[in-house]
Amino acid sequence: MSTSTYDVVAPTYDEYRALSDGVVARIRAEVLEASGPSSRPRLLDLGAGSGRIGRAFVAAGDDYVGVDLSLGMLRQFTRRADTSGRQPRVAQADGQRLPFAGAAFDAVLLIQVFGGLRGWRRVLAEARRVLRSRGALCLGRSVMPDDGVDARMKERLAAILIEMGVAPDEKNAREDVHHWLESTAESGPAVVAATWDADRTPQGFLDRHRTGARFSVLPEPVKEEALGALRAWAVATFGSLDAVSSERHVFELRIFTFPDEVGR
Fold first, then answer.
1. What is the reported pTM?
2. 3 state SS of 128
3. Does the pLDDT value for residue 91 go beyond 60?
4. Dihedral (C-alpha) 153, 157, 163, 166: value to the nearest 10 degrees?
5. Residue in 111, 121, 117, 181 with CA at minimum distance from that of residue 141
6. What sign does the dihedral 56-57-61-64 (CA atoms) show?
7. What is the CATH T-level fold of the domain 6-144+170-197+248-257, as seen in this structure?
8. Average pLDDT rounded to a whole number, residues 225-252
9. pLDDT of residue 104 exceeding 90
10. Which DSSP symbol is given to 51?
11. For the chain, which residues make up each domain, given as ranges?
């Protein structure tokens, strides 16, 4: 059975990362619109995690399947299923080797997975294989202000870890993925599926980042030293760990379709 670093943080993952029902509903509406003319499209969510996005599809009775390498995250998804009694259809699987027939889905979702995505070329090849002809590959992410609390805290923490001799996180694959897709697929402009205002504090970032999958596996002394240095920097920079900054967040979707291929 495969394991994942996300298994460790699964029980607390949603505590600091939940999206409001209204935001998730708007994301669902955009995905369904992109999925084509079918009245009940088949949807595959790669990197479904704890169901932050997927629970809306399950609650609505959509033809939805969630896949994730982390069994712990999928268990959280199932435990938090809709109170109506609908249970999600989920599968523990590697995105590079999907257990589905070709052309089985009207849309494949890759929502906020680029930071943890490994072997992205194979993942995209598998996504393309299981998509029907002209099916939609839906890439989504939350976009926060470049000068916001989270962005500044993240940048400073990366510098602290480098100063400590800790190798930085592997490069986020998002830009590479987008460049490859733009050269091989067809797409429209980015779609703003939802916007909302969120209150951010340095303390909130500290609490949330401690539960991040890659940060959580660092040795405990390293984590404590890094967070201690970041805490001191935040107090000097923002005046207080509880200083509140209201920030505009955006959820952005990019929809890609692949040209028809001979023999498919």
1. 0.88
2. helix
3. yes
4. -170
5. 111
6. negative
7. Rossmann fold (3.40.50)
8. 96
9. yes
10. -
11. 6-144+170-197+248-257
